[in-house]
Structure formats: C-alpha cells, structure tokens
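Sequence in, structure out.
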Amino acid sequence: MRLSEERKSLLLGAAKTFHDQFGGSPAEEYLVSHRCLDTEAIDKFRLGYVGDSVPSGFEQYKGTIAVPYLRRSALGNWSVMSIRFRCVRPECVKNADGTFRDDEVHVGHGKMQSMAGDTHRIYNTLAIQENADEIAVCEGEPDTWTTVQCGLPAVGIQGVNGWKPHFDKLFVGYKRVWVLADGDDAGLEFAEHIANRMPTGLVVPMGAGLDVNKTYKTLGREAVLNKVGK
C-alpha cells in the first residue's frame, strides 16, 4: 500500500514523539529489565512509548511501546511506513507485587495492536539491504530485536498469516534463510510454512517453551548464535 506524503509525515512525527518519551518510561523498564534489550538496539529500531504527549489519533495506544516500521531510501532519507503498538500496561504485564509476568494477560486486546486499515508488512526490511548472505526470519518484532542484538540480520513477520506470496522474492539469493521457531506447535507451524516457500530456508527450533528472547535471557547470546551454527 502506497502512503500519501501527509500520512508519512504524520507517522514520522508520531514516531519521533514516542521515541522522545521512551527514557524513564514503563517501556524502558519492560524492554531493558524484562526483555534484556540494550540501548543500541532500542535506538536502532527507534522504539518509543505512548505517554502523556499523544498526537491526535493515537490516544487509544497510551501505555504501549511504539514500534515504527522504518524505511530508508536509496538517497538515505528515512520514513515510517507504519507503527504497531505493544502493550506494557501494568495490569497486563505485571504481578501484584510489581514483578513482570511470564504469562501476560491482555483482556480485550492483543499484545500487539496495528493501526486501523494497516496491512501486513515485513518488519526491519533494513536487514534485507545489508550485504549479508544469511538472514533470519522471526515471528514478531520482539524476537527480531533480540536476534539483531545477537549480531544476526533479521526480519520479523506478524504470525503465519502475515506472510504474503510477494515476500518470497525478497529472500532469493541468500545462502541460508534461518526461520527461528518458537518452541510450541504454533511456532513450528509458522516456521515450516515460511521455510517451505524458499529453497534455502531452514527451520531452527528454539526448544520447548522457548522463543528467541527467552533463549537469550536464560542461556545467553552464544546459545542463540549456536542455533544457527555461529
């Protein structure tokens, strides 16, 4: 879907507003303390927080992490094609004692929310622009952040239904496409669906009950890289 210049300007301005509110926010606490994301990754992905300053039209996302879908033109100009929102409201992600829940409870909304009328997109297409012969495909944005933090180029897909046939051609020519699978039936279904669409795709299971981020948190960076032979 081609965006109007007005829409691009709106999204770019909102993403900047949200990124400026990230420091000291619940989003920073969640990503740094709970997800073990570092400052470099946060800045690279321009992650933000929908706090007290909310541009018109974004009020319903207050209390969430803002996840901009960044693009860079051949001339080096930046744009934002979409923003998705990851809930970190205390009642959803924390226990009564203030510790973070492993089994988050999001009532009436999903963990991730898209803007009305948005379409499925590949997250972090900047990785495809890198001069690499291998790339990882993750389910969702958070595992993409962790994979990139570990040093592996990665993109994210919004679940098994988020892969569109025209995505296939973007991964032609890679020596290996690592499809990182969550350690459950749905995760394996996602990974197998994508890996089967490309000649160099290979499913990499994280293990029972694990995803990329949990593997990183419990076993460390080397454990993630060892999964892909690094």
